Each structure stands twice: as C-alpha cells, then as structure tokens.
Amino acid sequence: MYKRFFIFILLLCIATTCVEAATLLDGANASASLGSFLLDVWSVIKTILGIVVILLILVFWQYILETLLYLGIFAGIGAIVFGILFGNAGLGAVIGLAVAAFLGIRLLIDELGPSFNGILLIAYYIISAPVFALNKLEFILVEPWRYVLKRSWIDEDSKPFVRSVLRVMSVLMYIVTTPLRLFNAIIYNIFIHCVTVLYDLLFEVFMPSDPEEGAGSVKMWILYFSLRLVKYLFWHGFLAIVESLIWTVVDVFIPAITLYHGTDLTASEAIASDPFRNAYMRNTSTWSYGTFTASTSSWGGIGVYFAAMRNVARSYAEDPHRLNDTNPVMIACRVSLGRVINYSLAPIRVYNQAGQYGNHSELNHYGEKNGYITGEWWNDHGGYWEFCMFDWESLYDHPWRIRPIYILNFRTGRAQHIKGGMQHWLFDHAVLKNIIEELKLKRFFK
Prior knowledge:
Distance between the termini: 71 Å
Number of helices: 15
Helix content: 55-70%
Largest sheet: 4 strands, antiparallel
Number of domains: 2
Number of strands: 8
Strand order of the largest sheet: 1-3-7-8
Structural class: alpha+beta
Oligomer: single chain
Order of helices and strands: HHHHHHHHHEHHEHEEHHEEEEH
C-alpha cells in the first residue's frame, strides 16, 4: 500500500512541477527580473511540499496522533516529576520530550531492520576512530619494545637481565603515559561506560523487561512507574556515576587499557547482566552470571582472552564453532592486566608451549610461579597480539580486572541493550580488598 502511495506522490509532484515550470517559462519570457523568477521557483517548491505534507497527514494520521500522544505523555511525566522535585516543570517537559525522541529513534532503528545494520556498523567505526586511536597510542607507548619481541631471539642467559631492565622501563613509561592514561580513563569510564549504563537504565524505566515491573501490561506499567524511576534511574544511575568516577581514579594508579573479547550474545549477557535486575538471567539462563569462562583450548594458555584489535575479536565472535546463538558480539572491556609476561622473554621451554601443539597448562604454571597475571603472545598464525589472563582458579568470577564497557552486536550493528542494566563491578568486599592490595604495589612492581 505504502509503495503505491509514494509512487502516486512522486507522479503528482512531477505533474505539478511540469505545469508550474511551463507557467514559469512563460513568465520568464515576459520578465527579465532574476529575483522575480527565483521567487516564482520558491512558490512552486512550496506548492509541492504543501501537497506532500497534506497527503502524508491523510495517510499517516493514526501514526501522527500516536506520536503526539507519546510525546505528550513523556513531556507530562517530565513536567510532573521535575515540578515536584525541583519546582521546574518546563525543564522537566523538555527533558521528557528529549527522552521520548531518544527512545523513538531507537524503536525506529529497530523497525528499519537488517538493511540499516551495515550503515550503523560503519557509523560506529567512523565515530569511534579518534577514541580507538588514543587507546591504541596508549597500548603502544606502555610497552613499545613488544614489537621487537614477537619471537624468542634473546639468549637464554640474558633473558633475566632483559626482564629486569624492561621492568624498570615499564615504571618510567607508567609515569610518562599518566596524562594519556587519565584522558582515556575519563573517556571510557565516564563518557562511554556511564552513558551506556544510563541508557540501559533509562530504557528499563520506560520499556521494562520484567513482567513483575510492568512489562506487557499498561496497568502494571503505570502502577510500577515510580518504583522503576527510583530503582533504575535514581539509585542504580547514581551508583553507575559513582562507580565510573572511582574507576577513573583507580585506572590512573592501576593501569588499565581497553581491549576486546569476542563471544556470542548469550555469553555476553551472562557476563554483563545483574541477575537481580534481569528476569531472564534470574529465571531461565543456565550461564553463571558475571563470569568470563576460561578458555582451555586456546594457544596462549588457559584463561580469558583479549585482543587489542577489534577485527580479531570479531573473527573469534563469528567463528561458528564458538557461537551458542546467531548473534556474534564484541565486549569492549577495561582490563587491568597486572604483571605481564611476554612469552618471548620466558625460558625457551615455556615459549615453545605457546601455539597449537604446546602444553598450555605449562604457561599457566610458569605465570603462577613467577607472579604474573597475564601472558602476552604474538600469534604468528593470525598476525596479532593476544592477551591471556591466567585463570586456573576461576579468578574472574565477579571480576574487577575485567570490566565490560559496552557490547557491540555485529548482527544488529549497534550497542547491545542489557536488560536491567549492567551489574556494578565495584561494590563488593572482595573486589575492594583486592584493589587496596594492588594499590600497595605488591604485584605491579614485584
């Protein structure tokens, strides 16, 4: 129906243009005034636009009425809330309209479907390019010598001395890169992570996912609106802001960098979700929430894997042997790597265990024995750096060293909405105790 309607509009506009153009040509012969001619052209354009607007209103009047009602509800709620709390109903109405527009755009994108997903993905890469470049610069400056240590070529007797020298140089680079580290921490923790979490929480207020809080029922939606507003936007939103600010400070003293983990949607939701705020995770999911499952079949050790390049994470996510569903995703994480061992600086017997045919548990034993948190390895087969956070005792259940910032769904081309919002990674006794120990520099300079 709509296709025929738009064809009709197009034909009508062409016919109107032809008639008006003929009139203009006659008028142009009678008058030499350019200004008068341009005014006549503008009158033709206004006529065509007027016809199009009238026809659009006649066909889509129901949708227009629903949209106006939708905007009115949000403006009214904003006015009431801000009027009661802050005595400024006008500001509340404007904020309500902005929220309605924000959610409406999201719904419109959903309706556009797969044909629009590729455009969204391209937009993501373009918009994120400056931020990605700054993170890449930090990645290079923190350890610039890694690029000459892709393979084990240093004499075995010299490796202990080289490791000691590079440890001192790491401290110097830690000091030099402090301003860049602070800037990246602000960008990723506050502007990206905090905004992502607040978006999820805002979505939960107006489009709840839990039937017990109003999903699927207009009556329940209205009844529990105040509860959702306080629970998600005010309380968890406040915690998200506080957490983002604290992590920004922590990241300056305990170096963290943004790395990427490829997986599927099922696993990513289990990792990032809070089961107390996600009804599906709480009732039906078989995954253990908050857990990065250690890989036992990868080539750089037994643990949780990350890449510095997004295309590497995407290749892992799109591997059909690894997927549990049809949604390959990439989790962008702030990762505190701790003490890192480049395998090329390890004894040759350890270095030889990395790769397809090595005994990968030996890499973990070497790391545990010598106080390393992460193994760094150049994958010759793929031509990229891999980072394996050794996980031989499920260290990263409810982790603090690995903190999801956002999840990019490659199928839809946009950030994945986490129902109920991401869980908070800071407010845990064990986490706080571990951070305090780390701040004492027991591990970083060991």
